[in-house]
Amino acid sequence: MFDAEAMFALARVQLARRVLEGALEAASEANQRLAAGPIEEWDEYIRLTMIEALFASGMNEEADAVIDSAFRALCDRAATIVRPEHQRAFLTRNEEVRQIVELARTRLGKTLPF
Fold this sequence. Notes:
Distance between the termini: 39 Å
Oligomer: single chain
Number of strands: 0
Order of helices and strands: HHHHHH
């Protein structure tokens, strides 16, 4: 059994190759493993990969549900960052975080609560 990072990497490769079924399967597996606990630096990127795989597969409603879940997880994580400048850095310097925030804004009408 592969770990979440390996499944994430496989999903990214499959997306790049446009092997959508394999990308969706690997991304789903990586996201399921996030339920067991955070994977530090990769959480948001793993969630974003799932969103991308769903959109690529034409599963827009499912992608919106994952965007909502990813946005909530992101807000929960940001809320634990005590120093405002560190919280702001987390929300603005990570490309995958910015993409999730932007997708939540444009597709779901959500904004950051801070």
